[in-house]
């Protein structure tokens, strides 16, 4: 059993048998001797090693083996070729030009060392072959902008100029050429190494093609040096250079606009963070983020900080990237960038935590109902008692009034929206009453019930005048947890109701807008079997019904008159026919006589 050796090719570790390693080692020494004297020897040798590593990797993956043996090495050498192959070809070409030796005779004179390898390769080559297929890559040696057109030309066997003409036509007729070019630029990789360039042209990555590629590059380089002045003068006047400058200027202008926009976003985020923090500390202002209103002050600050980091760090990253593009600022320190990234991850986790915990505080709902009687009356006047202003003691606040914010609005205005009033019908013999329904949410049902029980709301009655508080009060230790008050007023059928305009928009299940009149401060209603109905609308409907009834009666009488007229006309027609028949009969009798 052969001993196994571990080797490293192109940073890839391979297990290879000792005899196979000796063959590979001799092969690499032969290559280094040949290419070692060239100016670009290091790059050529790296490309060759990369190709050998690729072929070994393909063999291991395809053959499902772990160790490279002698057969694998011989096959790879046969596919790559030996240095003596293209050296003999070069000698053959010289002799053919001199006419001294026939090509067939020269090619027949193989070295003894080559024969076994070629025989081995020929016998095993049908089992494993490498085909040279083209890859779609950008040609950076023949480019105007990004080498997209020249890369497409290699792939489709077309000259690059025709591809460029097609893109220009796309640009002129619709502008889609620019978008397509940018997409291809982003998708197509660059052909940087010799292996990439040969794959782009569909050439096999063997020694002969490596040498050919190197010679072509050296030839092109010498031509560029010899005609550098002429090429520069001609290239400076090309359309590509002009378009390149235009796109470069346009791109920088666009980047500057985005830079200003993201800079303003950063400033706005910082201002929002500062004023929201001051608001949490008790310095009231008009800047407050709605989600913070439903959180405890301590949690709200950390949630605000996490939100600022979650939005601010990506915004700063884009801003810094634009700075690098426009002003060539050096790259950010790796330690700082990793710290910012870790901070951003932590802020996202914190936001998720606060979202989940706050959402749990709204999980359960509880409603407490209380019924209170109303003094009986044939009519009631319902209005609103404005209690939205909280007045502090004279010593602390010098008799000044202040408001508290919630959800971006004043707390008083917000609590006012969570009060509704509904009117229901009672039997005329029963006494009227009001049902108070206090609702709130919490993490548990008991917590929600306790919070609902701490809601304070009053309705006062003075004879037939009933006053509803404009707002309800919460306990100082309670934060907003969807507290609301639902009032249900039960009135006997036939009871007249007068609703003030300030209260009417809180009512439910009635057509409030249809009953309002611009010149009146109240609306008049009456309780019916179908609920509360607007009086003047009922009168209007009654008048309309009477008008329709009279109209129907008039139409009925008109129809009767038309029917009598029609019957009269029919009787006249019959009489005429009878007279005509009598006349004809008398005429016939007279003629006969």
Automatic annotation (TrEMBL):
<keyword id="KW-1003">Cell membrane</keyword>
<dbReference type="InterPro" id="IPR052027">
    <property type="entry name" value="PspC"/>
</dbReference>
<keyword id="KW-0175">Coiled coil</keyword>
<dbReference type="InterPro" id="IPR054321">
    <property type="entry name" value="PspC-rel_TM"/>
</dbReference>
<feature type="transmembrane region" description="Helical">
    <location>
        <begin position="162"/>
        <end position="188"/>
    </location>
</feature>
<dbReference type="Pfam" id="PF22571">
    <property type="entry name" value="LiaI-LiaF-TM_PspC"/>
</dbReference>
<dbReference type="Pfam" id="PF22744">
    <property type="entry name" value="Toast-rack_PspC-Cterm"/>
</dbReference>
<feature type="domain" description="PspC-related ToastRack">
    <location>
        <begin position="417"/>
        <end position="534"/>
    </location>
</feature>
<feature type="region of interest" description="Disordered">
    <location>
        <begin position="96"/>
        <end position="126"/>
    </location>
</feature>
<feature type="transmembrane region" description="Helical">
    <location>
        <begin position="253"/>
        <end position="281"/>
    </location>
</feature>
<dbReference type="Pfam" id="PF04024">
    <property type="entry name" value="PspC"/>
</dbReference>
<keyword id="KW-0472">Membrane</keyword>
<keyword id="KW-0812">Transmembrane</keyword>
<protein>
    <submittedName>
        <fullName>PspC domain-containing protein</fullName>
    </submittedName>
</protein>
<feature type="coiled-coil region">
    <location>
        <begin position="535"/>
        <end position="589"/>
    </location>
</feature>
<dbReference type="GO" id="GO:0005886">
    <property type="term" value="C:plasma membrane"/>
</dbReference>
<feature type="domain" description="PspC-related transmembrane region">
    <location>
        <begin position="230"/>
        <end position="362"/>
    </location>
</feature>
<feature type="transmembrane region" description="Helical">
    <location>
        <begin position="301"/>
        <end position="323"/>
    </location>
</feature>
<feature type="domain" description="Phage shock protein PspC N-terminal">
    <location>
        <begin position="134"/>
        <end position="191"/>
    </location>
</feature>
<dbReference type="InterPro" id="IPR054319">
    <property type="entry name" value="PspC-rel_ToastRack"/>
</dbReference>
<keyword id="KW-1133">Transmembrane helix</keyword>
<feature type="transmembrane region" description="Helical">
    <location>
        <begin position="335"/>
        <end position="356"/>
    </location>
</feature>
<dbReference type="InterPro" id="IPR007168">
    <property type="entry name" value="Phageshock_PspC_N"/>
</dbReference>
């Amino acid at each position: 059993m052969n001993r196994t050796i571990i080797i490293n090719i192109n940073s890839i570790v391979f297990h290879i048998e000792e005899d196979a390693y000796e063959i590979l080692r001799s092969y690499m020494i032969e290559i280094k001797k040949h290419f070692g004297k060239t100016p670009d020897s290091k790059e050529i040798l790296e490309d060759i090693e990369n190709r050998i590593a690729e072929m070994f990797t393909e063999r291991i993956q395809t053959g499902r083996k772990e160790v490279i043996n002698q057969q694998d090495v011989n096959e790879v050498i046969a596919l790559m070729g030996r240095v003596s192959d293209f050296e003999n070809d070069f000698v053959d070409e010289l002799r053919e030009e001199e006419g001294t030796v026939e090509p067939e005779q020269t090619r027949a004179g193989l070295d003894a060392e080559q024969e076994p390898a070629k025989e081995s390769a020929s016998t095993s080559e049908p089992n494993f072959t490498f085909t040279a297929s083209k890859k779609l890559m950008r040609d950076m040696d023949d480019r105007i902008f990004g080498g997209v057109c020249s890369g497409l030309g290699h792939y489709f066997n077309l000259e690059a100029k025709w591809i460029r003409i097609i893109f220009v036509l796309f640009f002129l007729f619709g502008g889609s050429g620019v978008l397509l070019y940018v997409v291809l630029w982003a998708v197509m990789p660059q052909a940087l190494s010799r292996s990439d360039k040969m794959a782009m042209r569909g050439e096999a990555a063997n020694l002969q093609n490596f040498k050919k590629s190197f010679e072509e590059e050296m030839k092109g380089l010498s031509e560029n040096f010899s005609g550098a002045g002429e090429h520069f003068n001609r290239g400076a006047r090309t359309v590509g250079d002009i378009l390149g400058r235009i796109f470069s200027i346009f791109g920088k202008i666009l980047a500057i606009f985005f830079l200003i926009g993201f800079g303003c976003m950063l400033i706005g985020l910082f201002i929002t963070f500062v004023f929201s923090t001051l608001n949490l500390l008790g310095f009231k202002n008009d800047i407050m983020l709605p989600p913070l209103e439903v959180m405890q002050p301590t949690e709200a600050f950390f949630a605000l900080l996490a939100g600022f980091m979650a939005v601010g760090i990506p915004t700063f990253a884009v801003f810094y990237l634009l700075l690098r593009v426009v002003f060539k600022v050096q790259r950010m320190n790796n330690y700082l960038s990793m710290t910012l990234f870790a901070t951003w991850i932590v802020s996202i986790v914190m936001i998720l935590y606060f979202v989940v915990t706050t959402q749990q505080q709204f999980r359960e709902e509880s409603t407490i109902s209380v019924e209170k009687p109303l003094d009986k009356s044939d009519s009631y006047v319902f209005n609103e008692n404005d209690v939205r202003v909280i007045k502090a003691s004279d010593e602390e606040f010098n008799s000044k009034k202040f408001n508290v914010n919630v959800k971006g609005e004043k707390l008083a205005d917000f609590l006012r929206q969570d009060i509704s009033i509904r009117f229901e019908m009672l039997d005329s013999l029963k006494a009227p009453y009001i049902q108070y329904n206090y609702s709130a949410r919490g993490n548990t049902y008991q917590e929600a019930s306790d919070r609902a029980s701490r809601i304070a709301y009053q309705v006062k009655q003075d004879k037939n005048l009933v006053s509803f508080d404009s707002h309800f009060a919460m306990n100082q230790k309670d934060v907003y947890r969807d507290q609301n008050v639902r009032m249900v007023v039960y009135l006997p059928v036939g009871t007249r109701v007068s609703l003030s305009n300030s209260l009417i928009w809180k009512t439910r299940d009635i057509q409030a807008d249809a009953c309002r009149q611009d010149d009146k401060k109240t609306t008049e209603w009456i309780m019916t079997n179908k609920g509360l109905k607007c009086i003047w609308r009922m009168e209007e409907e009654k008048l309309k019904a009477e008008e329709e009834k009279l109209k129907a009666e008039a139409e009925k009488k008109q129809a009767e008159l038309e029917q009598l007229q029609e019957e009269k006309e029919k009787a006249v027609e019959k009489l005429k026919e009878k007279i005509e028949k009598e006349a004809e009969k008398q005429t016939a009798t007279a003629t006969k006589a």
